Structure formats: structure tokens, C-alpha cells
Amino acid sequence: MLKNYVYLNPGLTIIFNGEKFFSENGLKDLLEDNNNKEDMLYPIIHLKGDDIEVAITHSRTQYSEEYHSFVNGQHTTQGGTHQAAFRESIVKTIREFYGKNFEASDVRKSIISAVAIKVMEPVFESQTKTKLGSTEMGGSLPTVRTYINDFVKTKLDNFLHRNTEVAEKLHKKIVQAEKERKELSGIRKLAKDRAKKASLHNKKLRDCRIHLGDIKKENYLETTLFITEGDSASGSITKSRNVNTQAVFSLKGKPLNSYGLSKKIVYENEEFNLLQAALNIEDGLEDLRYNNIVIATDADVDGMHIRLLLITFFLQFFPELIKEGHLFILETPLFRVRNKKQTFYCYSDEEKRDAIDKLRGKPEITRFKGLGEISPNEFVHFIGDDIRLDPVMLDKEMSIEQMLQFYMGKNTPDRQKFIIENLKVELDYVEKESLS
Description:
By secondary structure, the chain is α/β, with parallel strands linked by helices.
């Protein structure tokens, strides 16, 4: 929130707990801070007017659309009339500039952008002010749609005429998107039909009653999808979950390593296709059904591998889920330490030692090897108010392509060296534990 304040007020410095927040270039800085430059197809187009500011680029790696929108300083995470007008105006302007009736989805594919406007007496669709409902700018100004359309048409068209290199890169990107869409059209239809049939008797998804799109309902921001491995783990979570806000998607074995594969694999692979359908993210995050997507795997080698393969899938095809803070890892206890009076659930060896010291004597110690070993009566404590979630975050210093190539690509001397060095640390730790 503090970062948004400085993006929307260039030149303002906020110091909070010794940390300095400052932006010189407004929404341009917002896109730069949230994306690696190497992932951007061309330098950010930054356009400003009296009551409007926009920033636009396209990603080399990302498939879907990404928008950051604001009204009078309020972060409208659910979009609204201004975001809809902005999306429409980009397509209209680009069609007119190139003189071609491109498909809207091809123009906007991989777009990363931000828009901020100022409206007199805005009307929002809910108390949380996450979606603008106003159609008027106020005063003698035209409608929101007309105002944004006129601004983008003039400024973006001028920019593309003056920056032919950017215009050329953008044109190639749109043509490539058109080609990929046509290649996918047949398989996409088959995959959608399969997903519709599967949704009628889909044993993989145990859905909840409230979804992220239900912004008028109280707990829509608590909506969570747990992605689990196997039936035993999903069974424990399913029995102990909150049926209103918590859903469970069960994987069958290890998912495919999707690094370097095209979007075609999302439709061809039944598990990926059903997961995409469950999240409702085929055309972007606008209709995302859950605010929190939580990977819940066992704390063993296989569980870690499945976790890595799932993160690879999201990074390869839906990195905006991670950028916007929707992806998490569920922490579950490794040990239960108890006597007849007290029970402690411990998430690390250090917590286990502290629990043993508190209980004294010879308490009973149980090591949980998998989520399926934790009873539903116990599991309810770990996915309720005291849930521990580790957010999955991107390293801004490394592009997504570089990161995936290093960790998930073919073996290289660099990765072998990295693994050997880190295994040595792990072995040292094991040796110390066995000695103690």
C-alpha cells in the first residue's frame, strides 16, 4: 500500500520503520519494480494527462493479461469501468494504427500495464472499493469510457508513430499471438469440452461455496484452493476444511515438468487443463475463483519435487498469479510432542526441542511423514485461523526464463555445483543432528 502511495504521487517520500519508499516516475516504476526488464518485450510506454496516467509493455514469457488499476488513489484490484475502457481503447488504437482488424485477445496477450484516473465522486461496487462502478468522470468531463478512449487514442498513436522500433516489436508479438491462437483453436475446444464433462463428476475438485468473484459476500478474500498430492492428503484437508471458503484440488502422482513447453500442453494434459479450469484463469486473472492458491504437499523429497513442478507450471504459464501474491506453500507440522496434559505441534527441530523442554520428562514424539498421517481433527488447526503460509515470490534480479532454465532445464555444470554445495550443507546438518 505504501508503494502504491508513492507510485501515485511521484516525488513523495514515505519513511516507515526506517525503510524509504520513493518513486520518481509513477506507474512506470510500478511496472519496473514488479517485472524483470529482460522479461519485457520493449521499454515501458509511459503516458500522462491531467487526470490520467498509463504505463504499458508486453511480456516475452507471460501468456495472459496483467493490469494494475487505480481510482483516486484507491487500488481497484477487481477492475471496473475504467479498466474495461482501458482494455478496449488499447485494442481500438492498435487496430487503427496498423490498419488491421486484429482479434482483441491477440493484441492484449502478454500485456503488462497500469492505469490510474481521477474521478469526481466515484461510485464503487462494494464497500471494499475494489471495483469502480461509475460511468461518469464528473463535472463537464465526458464519460469514463470516452475520456480514456480519447486519451489512449491520441497519446498511444503518437508514441507508436514516433517509436517505430517499439511498433515493429509489438506488431510481431500480435502476429505471433494470432498464429498460436489458430494452432490452439482445435485442441482448445476439445479440452474445454473435456473440462465441462469432468466438472460434472470431477473427483479432483472439491469446491467451496464462496468464490473471489463474489465481492458482495463477506469472506470472498479468504477463498482458498489447496492443491494436494494423492487421495490421503486431500481426504484429511477435505474433512477439516471450511466448506464456505476452502476448496481442494487433488493431483494424481507427479505433474509434468512444463519448462520450455508451449501453452498447448496445458490443454493436452488433463491435470493441467482441469487445474486451469478450476482456477478459471485461461483468459487472465479477472475471473480468478480463489484469492489464495496453496500448494499442500508432504515435507519429503517427493513432496518437494511436486511443489517445484507446480511452481514451474505457474511460472511458465501464469506468472502473474505469483506477481500478484496469490500463490503460497502450506506449512504443516513435522512433529507432535505431547504428554497427558498438553500437546505441541512443531514445524521445525528447534520448535520440537522447545516443546520437549516445556513438557519435561519423556513426552510422546510423533514425526509426521505425510499430510495423510494427520487426522482431520488435528488438521483443522493447521488450515484455520492459525494457518501458516509461505508466499511464493519472484526474484526481481533474475528473469523468469533464466530462473526456469537454471532450475528446471537440462543439467549444467553450474546447477551441479549448486546442488553439490547445498547438499553438503544439508549433510552437515544431518550429521550434527545425529551427534546430538
